[in-house]
Amino acid sequence: MVSVNITPIAIFSAFVLATLCITYWSSRHARDLKGFYSAGSSIKPWQNGLAITGDYLSAASFLGTVAVFYSYGLDGLLYAVGAIAGWPVVTCLIAEPLRARGRFTFSDALCHHHSSTSVRVLTAASTLCICGSYLIAQLVGAGTLIELLFHIPYRIAVPAVGVLMLCYVLFGGMVATTWVQIIKATALLAVALLMTILLLKRFGFDLRALAGEVSGGRVVAPLMSDTFSAVSLALAFAFGPAGMPHILMRFFTVSDSRKARQSLVITTILIASFQVLVIVLGSGAATLLRGSGGGIGLSGGPNMAVVHLARILGGDLLFGVVAAVTFATIVAVVAGLTLAAAAAISHDLYKHAITGGAASERSEVGVSRLAAFAIGACAIGLGFVFQHQNVGFLATLPLVIAASANFPTLLLSIYWPRLSAAGAVCGGFTGLGLSVVLMTLSPKIWVSALGHQHAPFPFEYPTLFSLGAAFAVAYLVSITDRRIHRVTHSVSQEDAAL
Which domain holds residue 188? Predict the structure, then answer.
């Protein structure tokens, strides 16, 4: 007979009940457009900082990064340190200008100087690709976790998570999503700190002893097989957060640019602190789980390493708490991702590209809710395809797309006045197309996920290609476009004179 741990069930139930109550309370604030998309711009900086932290600290940050340490030893530092790298870029270069130029989505900021249907289509396409790939990572983690804890089949667990996520988005909008993120971020930071203290206590609070155990442990395979992939991954970590739609959308939940910057300062401090804790926990997983005979055949796979580490450190009670908090982490992140993707369809495509701005607020909110339902269904289907992939790797894919498609166009539109609408569109689609196609043809997807024998693209990450190409194309097209306009204008003046 299969035994079920009652502790995580009780904590799961308490979390779900509390968040559904928040959703019910928030539903009255989500009836108009501004309330649904940006919580009426009424969120305080400290609240927004916690919410952005919650958006970024996903299943990949906790499950995936510890899994990388478990499988590859101290090479996991690349993921942990990389997760911090992009936030100074967002804080210093993007936050204030974006908030000053936009209203609901980052495409509003792009269209501040380049208002065109093509720009809206670009931002909607990139948002759907980024949020879709990120949703897959979260649902894979959620399905695996529920399968491990409750012995519920993966194919039932994933749709169940999707339904819960849709409840937050469809009925609560940004207010509910924000408060779910705040609760989840606080709980995750507290649990990671508790686990770190218990782990260090086992090693006499001697970090050198812990690091020595990890460096001397067995490593399954090198994390990065080539320099190109390592540099590409570093670029994705550095510039990806500055192009993540669900992160950028949060800048509009505060009332002005200064508060957006304050939010990002709080976020950077919290994420850096969390990654320090994850480095310690990852080292502990690589040491204690292998030492306890777990080997590479860990129940639930490497993605569940941190959950098994919790059981070693604190028994069934801590095991249940960590499992429940991890589940909360996943559900909260997928809610934010779904809201951002739905906003791209309703606000950018439906309102601006299809109706030319003529759509009513009520119809736009309705389309957004229908889009959220469709996005959730697609993500559930793709979660089945990528069931056995490391969630840490899956969560780097949207960072690659964001760094390649959104970051170049957003940065140039803010700081380079000569960027034309054609340059922004061509550069953005170049980065988007190259990143998606080359990642699909890479070994991790073409071979591991899709089952082909050889990968046409030999590297794991294409950021070096796609990011550079996006900047180059945006620059060249903008320069050419302006020269054509100057020549056309001169010819028109000469004709008028004649």
Answer: 6-391
3 state SS of 56: helix
384 falls within a domain: yes
Distance CA(369)–CA(380), nearest Å, equals: 17
The token pair at 454 is 């050889």
Inside any domain, residue 193:
yes
Q: How many CB atoms lie within 10 A of CB 156?
A: 12
Nearest to 132 by CA among 436, 422, 388, 404: 436
In a domain, 477, yes or no: no
- Rounded Cα distance, 255 and 263, in Å: 11
Token pair recorded at residue 471? 């900047």
In angstroms, the CA 473 to CA 483 distance is: 15
CATH number at residue 165: 1.20.1730.10
Task: Please indicate, yes or no, whether the overall pTM of this predicted structure exceeds 0.90.
Answer: no
Alpha helices in 344-454 (DSSP H): 361-385, 391-401, 407-415, 421-440
pLDDT tens-place string over residues 153-181:
888 888 887 777 777 666 666 677 777 78
In the chain, the number of structural domains is 1
- Asked if the structure places residue 408 within a domain, the reply is no
